[in-house]
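FAQ: What does the model actually see?

It sees only this:
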Amino acid sequence: QVQLVESGGGLVQAGGSLRLSCVASGRISSFNVMGWYRQGTGNQREMVARMSSVGTTTYADSVKGRFTISRDSPKNTVYLQMNSLKPEDTAVYYCKQESFSPRSDYWGQGTQVTVSS
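And it is asked to produce this:
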């Protein structure tokens, strides 16, 4: 089992920045993918950014150039630096870890990000 705890959400004005953190604990496999997903009110959960333990990254088109995902492997922590925030970025942001031996997905409890116009 893997436990994920997010932090760093909050209320920010449009154009502002926030940094989300997610700390993983438990049985963490050496190769995994950690990422950030979000779910706005009335919307489906969508991928925001993902990063493998070997550094491969993927971003949603809507956040490219504004958000940056990074990892601190010794600390089992993944970050999401969010700049130039827009009201449409408002959502609950969830941390996810994908493990492959065996195949398992783990989710954090979510952290609210609200961007005011």
